[in-house]
Amino acid sequence: MSFKNRVDPAGELFVSESRGLFTGNRGVIHDPKTRKLTGKRWTTPAWICCALSYKDRKRDVWGLNGRKGGAGWTELFFLDEVTALAAGHRPCNTCRRESAKSFKASWVEGNKGKGSASDMNRDLHAERLLSRSKKPDTIHPDALGDLPDGTIVLAGATYFALRDGQGLPWGFHGYATALPFSNLHIEPITLVTPKSIVSCLRAGYEPQWHPSADGSS
Predict the structure, then answer these.
(1) What pLDDT score does 40 carry?
(2) Is residue 155 domain-resident?
(3) How many domains does the chain have?
(4) What is the mean pLDDT of residues 201-210?
(5) What is the pLDDT, as a whole number, of residue 132?
(6) Contact at 8 Å (CB) between 159 and 170?
């Protein structure tokens, strides 16, 4: 059975054969009896990016994985952490503790504020493109060079992950050949990664990239 649980940089869900490097959730948004989406986009402001495996725990995707026989949470999948961050998911403090600690430190430094889970959840929920109240932030092509590596933008109909002064075209199976910023002069360009996470990247947080970003599959 194919599940509509592959996440694009804007947080939208699609069906894809490619699972990606990370899983995660934004609460329970599926019916475990039918294994279909309920229509809700989230049930919690805590959007998490998790490791695919942790202490040999086994889960039945979109099944009954809760402690009391309930749904537990709806498994979503991301190409890589760059994608998860763009969609507004932060590192899990349980299965990715070291990444979560590094992310929190960069959050505090980059955003000049508190780094509690509730603080991050609140701020990120207001900045995600998927949030109903969020209006897209447009940027001028000349400003691409001011954004840190790991930021994702939408130029035309294509998502680009910024790295080493180039834009890597994003896809569910990986990144295509990088293009110089001069090739991305397509207006309007939308900033997809939440601004608070852009600040984390600028402060030094290093997300995990899909191997295709280095030219590997």
Answers:
(1) 93
(2) no
(3) 1
(4) 98
(5) 60
(6) yes
